Amino acid sequence: MKKINIVSVILFVYILTIAVWQWPGNEPNPDYVQYFFIIGLSLVLAVLVRFIQIKRMKMRQQWGDEYQDKKKNRNLKENK
Q1: 26 φ, ψ to 5°?
Q2: Measured distance CA(14)–CA(59) in Å, rounded
Q3: pLDDT higher than threshold 70 for residue 1
Q4: Radius of gyration for the chain, computed over Cα atoms and rounded to the nearest angstrom
Q5: Residue range 25-77, pLDDT digits in tens
Q6: Is the pTM of this model over 0.70?
Q7: How many CB atoms lie within 10 A of CB 57?
Q8: What is the Cα 38 distance to its own chain's centre?
Q9: Under DSSP, is residue 40 helix (H, G, I), strand (E, B) or coil?
Q10: Local structure of residue 22 (DSSP, 8 states)
Q11: Where does 1-80 have alpha helices with state H?
């Protein structure tokens, strides 16, 4: 399993745990709008972090491929 998946699962489990723990149903005047807004915002940020991690992984892979190509071309020139 990739690090990105592990981090995403941990974030979603954390959000779910906090959501269950902080359920406002036991209070005399629960504020459900604020509760669901914070949960929704947390989920949006977790998804945003996942997309940023995927983009960074692709960029690193591309840079690594470019480095390998440059290294291969340099070795071909030296062997001629």
Answers
A1: -90, -5
A2: 28
A3: no
A4: 22
A5: 777 888 889 999 999 999 999 999 999 999 999 998 888 888 887 777 777 67
A6: yes
A7: 13
A8: 18
A9: helix
A10: T
A11: 3-21, 32-79
Give the residue carrying structure tokens 């974030």. Answer: 11
80 pLDDT higher than 70:
no
How far apart CA 17 and CA 42 sit, in angstroms, is: 12
Q: Which long-range contacts (CB under 8 A, 24 or more apart) does 27-36 make?
A: none
User: What phi, psi does 28 have (nearest 5°)?
Assistant: -65, -40
DSSP character for 49? H
- Integer angstrom CA distances of residue 1 from 7, 8, 51, 58: 10, 11, 17, 16
CA distance 37 to 31: 10
